[in-house]
Write a structure and sequence with these properties.
The complex is a heterodimer of chains A (210) and B (136). With 210 residues, chain A is an alpha/beta fold. Chain A has a single domain, classed as P-loop containing nucleotide triphosphate hydrolases (Rossmann fold). Chain A has seven helices and six strands, in the order H-E-H-E-E-H-H-E-H-E-H-E-H. Chain A has a six-stranded mixed sheet with strand order 2-3-1-4-5-6, with helices on both faces. The longest helix of chain A has 20 residues. The radius of gyration of chain A is 19 Å and the shape is globular. In chain B, helix 2 crosses helix 3. Chain B has a four-stranded mixed sheet. Chain B has a two-stranded antiparallel sheet with strand order 5-6. Chain B is globular and about 45 Å long. Chain B has 136 residues and is an alpha+beta fold. In chain B, a hairpin with a 2-residue loop joins strand 5 and strand 6. Chain B contains five helices and six strands. Helix content of chain B is 43%, strand content 26%. Classes of the chains: A alpha/beta (210), B alpha+beta (136). Chains A and B meet through helix 4 and helix 5 of A and helix 3, strand 3 and strand 5 of B.
């Protein structure tokens, strides 16, 4: 009887907590690492619809995209997330790079202009997130200044970070190299495209939020 | 001709964040590769990227940036404490920063032990401009 009463009180508290807790989860990283693919995977897993379009042309995501109140469950826990997909952060944008993907000069210049605004917005949004997934391409060298600057800024703001080493389905992927580059953070290997290791990813996400 | 300009920390020590960013970015826009003694703080690094984005146009395509801080990997508490104290007293003068225009530096490759500056092929740029010239 006593136990049931305690459970009852616990449930009330859990419901109050559940009702209020909304985690603003930012997805950050350099360009073409699979941020939108991961955002799409999360949204598809939990609400059955995608968030944004993906492309091989760099800077496909040029505006912040938010999917509100995505309910995610892991083990017996459940939380609401606002999934915030951000444009890839870069220190340079050359419109001529877009022309290599058969865009016209006019289209390329317009895309470059939008992309610069996207990077600025992404940096500004660092103020508005509760936790961040820093997505890296596991096939690339992780000692990239953009990665270091993003993670350093999040650390300076005391924002919890989970490093997501994406594309681990590819032969060149080296999860250990990512883990060694940022030993003070948990780094989890996934393939957002193939849905590989997503269970562990959700567990790690809940570990990050607790 | 390629210019590598050394900037001692004393040159930026008393400047505001905005002033530091402006100085470094102006040098990069003059096609110089800047070797700064020490480093900007993390917020200044993010601000440098933002300011760079605001100024990108047809001729300025952005920057390549690498900050090297040898003490960052120190794990022991005493070293970290010593480094924090030194930063508080002397500023961020440990390590160094390389900033260069993206039209000159193609990429900076780094790992814990080395830094490689991959330069743009000057001939490809001149051939591109000569092609444009011919089209006119």
């Amino acid at each position: 009887m006593k136990l049931k009463f305690i459970d009852y009180i616990n449930n009330i508290f859990r419901m109050i907590f559940r009702g209020k807790k909304l985690v603003k989860l930012g997805i950050y990283g350099p360009i073409n690492v699979g941020k939108t693919t991961l955002a799409n995977r999360i949204c598809k897993d939990w609400i059955g619809e995608e968030l944004g379009t993906v492309s091989k042309i760099p800077h496909e995501t040029r505006e912040i995209q938010v999917k509100e109140k995505v309910k995610i469950r892991s083990n017996s826990k459940e939380l609401d997330f606002n999934i915030i997909d951000t444009p890839g952060i870069a220190t340079k944008i050359d419109y001529e790079d877009f022309m290599k993907f058969k865009l016209s000069e006019k289209e390329s210049k317009a895309r470059a202009k939008e992309a610069t605004k996207g990077v600025i917005e992404a940096i500004k949004w660092l103020e508005n997130v509760d936790a961040v997934l820093v997505v890296l391409d596991a096939t690339e060298n992780p000692y990239n200044q953009v990665n270091i600057t993003i993670i350093g800024n999040l650390a300076a703001r005391n924002i919890p970070v989970l490093i997501v080493a994406n594309k681990i389905d590819l032969k060149k992927a080296k999860l250990k190299r990512v883990q060694n580059a940022f030993p003070q953070y948990r780094a989890i290997g996934i393939s957002a495209e193939k849905g590989k290791n997503m269970e562990d990813f959700y567990d790690a996400l809940f570990e990050l939020i607790k | 001709m390629l210019t590598l300009q050394f900037v001692p920390y004393t040159e930026i020590r008393d400047m505001s964040s905005l002033g530091r960013i402006r100085k470094l970015l102006n040098m990069a826009k003059e096609n110089k590769i800047v070797l700064l003694e020490g480093r900007l703080n993390k917020e200044e690094e993010a601000e440098l990227i933002k300011t760079t984005m605001e100024e990108i146009n047809a001729s300025f395509r952005g920057i390549e940036l690498a900050v090297v801080n040898p003490n960052e990997s120190d794990d022991d508490v005493f070293s970290k404490l010593k480094s924090t104290l030194a930063t508080t007293l002397l500023g961020n003068r440990q390590g160094f920063t390389i900033i260069g225009p993206a039209t000159v530096i193609k990429n900076i490759k780094r790992d814990p032990n080395k830094l490689q500056l991959m330069m743009k092929d000057a001939t490809s740029k001149s051939s591109r401009s000569s092609k444009k010239h011919r089209r006119r």
